[in-house]
Amino acid sequence: MIRDLLDSSRLQAGKKLSLKLEHFELTTLVRHTLEKLSVVHGDRFELEDGQPIYGYWDREGVRRALENLVNNALKYGCPRATVTVVLRQENERVRLSVHNWGNPLSRDEQLSLFKPFSRARSAKLSGKKGWGLGLTLVQGVAQAHGGAVSVTSSESEGTTFTIDLPRDARASYNA
Q1: If DSSP codes are grouped into helix, strand and coil, which group holds residue 166?
Q2: Which helix H or strand E contains 31, and what residues bound it?
Q3: Distance CA 36, CA 49 (A)
Q4: What's the confidence (pLDDT) of residue 173?
Q5: Distance between CA 162 and CA 158 in Å, rounded?
Q6: Which of 32, 69, 148, 155 is most enclosed, with most CB atoms within 10 A?
Q7: CA-CA distances (angstroms) from residue 44 to 104, 113, 166?
Q8: Nearest of 55, 125, 68 to residue 95 by alpha carbon
Q9: What residue ranges of the chain have pLDDT lower than 70?
């Protein structure tokens, strides 16, 4: 939590997150992260497209962003539904998506979710605790890599958060 607060303060000051870029295989990181989360949350995860994807990213930053999105999907999604994680390489970009079923986010909520200390109205009404920093962190991680994060949400399609990253973040990152 302290690290999230420090990182949020850094982002609010208009600074990028510090990254430690290294070459690694992303699918293995995603799989291991989901396995660790399964110990606590049970067999609720499905990983689509398990092809190896190599690139240069900050391992810890990507793990934290994925954990945040998955934990949000568990916290605010349907408690019995599977959380689906999709990892795809598209040319020199990688898309990491987390999908869940549950109450959709309104368009207004979607526009404000990534602001620090911002929480969706449905999250506030749910009584579930949160600081509203997690999605700010996810966005900060994506942007520091030269990428972006987006959300789509509807009753018929569910909610999907997608992190779009370059396969080689070294060109975008200036420490």
Answers
A1: strand
A2: helix 26-41
A3: 19
A4: 72
A5: 13
A6: 69
A7: 19, 24, 28
A8: 55
A9: 1-16, 116-133, 174-175
Asked if residue 74 lies in contact with residue 149, where contact means CB atoms within 8 angstroms, the answer is no
Report the phi/psi class of residue 5: left, alpha or beta, with left for phi > 0 and alpha for psi in -120 to 50: alpha
**Given this structure, which CATH class describes domain 2-9+19-171?**
alpha beta
Which two structure tokens, joined as six digits, stand for 71? 């934990």
Element (H, E) at 36: helix 26-41
Instruction: For residue 142, count other CB atoms closer than 10 A to its CB.
Output: 23
Tell me what pLDDT residue 26 has. Answer: 97
Helix (H, G, I), strand (E, B), or coil: what is residue 25? Answer: strand
What angle do helix axes 2-12 and 134-144 make, rounded to 10 degrees? 60
> Could you report the per-residue pLDDT of 105-155, keeping only the tens digit for each?
888 887 878 775 555 555 544 555 555 568 988 999 999 999 999 999 999
* Pairing assessment for the beta strands 45-48 and 83-90 based on DSSP bridges: parallel
**Short-list 14, 141, 121, 9, CA closest to 68:** 141
Q: H or E element: which one contains 9? A: helix 2-12
Q: Taking Cα atoms as reference points, which of 20, 129, 24 lies closest to residue 72?
A: 129
Give residue limits of the domains in the chain: 2-9+19-171
HSE-up of residue 10 (Cα within 13 Å, Cβ side): 16
SS3 state of residue 29: helix
